[in-house]
Specification:
By secondary structure, this protein is of the alpha+beta class. It has one domain: Creatine Amidinohydrolase, CATH 3.90.230. Helix content is 28%, strand content 27%. The protein contains six helices and 15 strands. It has helices at 9-29, 36-49, 113-128, 136-148, 224-233, 246-254; strands spanning 53-54, 59-62, 65-67, 84-93, 96-105, 153-154, 159-163, 173-175, 190-193, 196-198, 204-215, 259-267, 273-275, 278-283, 286-289. The protein has a five-stranded antiparallel β-sheet with strand order 8-7-9-14-15. Strands 1, 2, 4 and 5 form a four-stranded antiparallel β-sheet that branches.
Length: 298
Amino acid sequence: MSGGEAPPTEAWRTAGRIAAGARELGVRLAVPGASRREIAEAVEGYVRSHGAEPAFPANLSRNVEAAHYTPDSTDEGRLLLGDLLKVDVGAHVDGAVADTADTVEVGGGRRGAHLIAAAREALAAGVRAVRPGGAVDDVSRAVAEAIRARGLNPVRDLTGHSIERYLLHAGKSIPNVPGLSSDRFEVGEIIAIEPFATNGEGRIASGPFGHIVRFRRPPPADDAELARLYGRFRTLPFTPRWARGPAERAALERGRRLLQTYPVFLERSGGLVAQAEHTVRVGPAGAEVLTVPGGPGG
């Protein structure tokens, strides 16, 4: 379900600009002693205050956590000096979704510098490889070669993805290693290129279930509270932390069978993980990067 007619290109550009600003805020706030919950709330608040809605809860995964960690409303965990924090954020404007990420070493040390550079270089290489009608595998090869050039491994179980209205993962995967896709890019397509670099083996294990959920299907029409929640989030991921008061919290508990809960993804061998990500539009001359501060959105 793509949510009907696609939003205009300008909506995607605006979402990209807002997501990029939220990402940069999250990176700035990642200092020793900072609360992950307070960072998540600040990032999500930035998105809302700039005229968009979060496309998913702020993911603030650290060290061996590769993805899908967002704090709940009672989380008191704080960042430690040397933590390798992935700041993965999304914004949407009428369902036009932008998804972007960067990695920061908390406190500005050098333990993770090699990993951060590998993820960023892989992202740049992947963006350069995008061509209308071009092979997805060209991007995968560029990403993997950039990471391996630094003696590190791409995380093969996590991929980039196509995006459609209200669909964060719209069906086309962009692997971080070559040989897994025969797809080609189409002009006008919105895609997220999302390298993960690790000093581990590059495979993912599912950790504990976290605090990110999404509707598997629409709720019954006679449950007004659940129907309102579905109207807010559609098929996009959200978190119970966003429930507005006891009635919505009770509705989420009542509708648990309708919800998919995401596990926290961990690097299987205990390796550290860095991530970098842009949302791009496939243009006639190549990739138009949407998630840059002050970029195409204004």
